[in-house]
Amino acid sequence: GGRGGLSGRGEGGIDLSNWTNRLLALNVAIFIAQQVDPSITLMGAKNDQLIRRGELYRLFTPMLLHGDIQHLMANSYTMYNLGHFIEPLFGGPMQYLALYILSGLAGNALSFVSGRAPVSIGASTAVSGLLGAVGLFCYRHRHVWNLEGPLRSVAQAVVINGVLGMSSARIDNFGHLGGLVGGAVCGWLFGPRLVPLTTREGVFRGYVNSPILQTGWAALGRQVRGRLGRRSGLGAPPGKGGARQGWAR
Mean per-residue pLDDT for 140-165? Predict the structure, then answer.
């Protein structure tokens, strides 16, 4: 029979080999549970009054909930596109999940502090973090790859979301803003940062990944392999003079 579980494609052909698809599947499963038992929404929504009473878990649980099928589909579509781009660039599940969760927490925290949306749900705080991380990656490496097009697309998405947010009182703008900034900060601290690798004689050898925040899962001097470029669709970064020098080994 076909492989089941999270290691590959299940019998239904759903690819759960990456965390973007796993998170999408989790959101769908929880949405179905919400329809079966609506009290789940009340138990997990970001409720500012209850957070003040100490229910801090409500800064996390809203990113798992959605109001209706349109809400779920909109977030899922954006997450599918952004997640499959940024996940392989972060090098491992711990970094990617940290990006997603910390962005969601940042968005819900800013929403709570602002007090503009007393009750809210949705994965858009975390999804906005993916957008922030993509924008940061494109800006940071705009001289390594030709990323002007993707960078413009990110800027346009931010502007469009901002305009739509101001036109509707139902949209939690501060939640989106907090997630966006949180994702950019995560990308800056422990996201990919390619720096030139040269010999003592100054001969360019390629690029090495050196995140600002060095942790157990972003080890000092971890070398970037060609798989990162292949999986993200970017290809290996060009070397000096436009010639492809490959990746540091």
Answer: 77
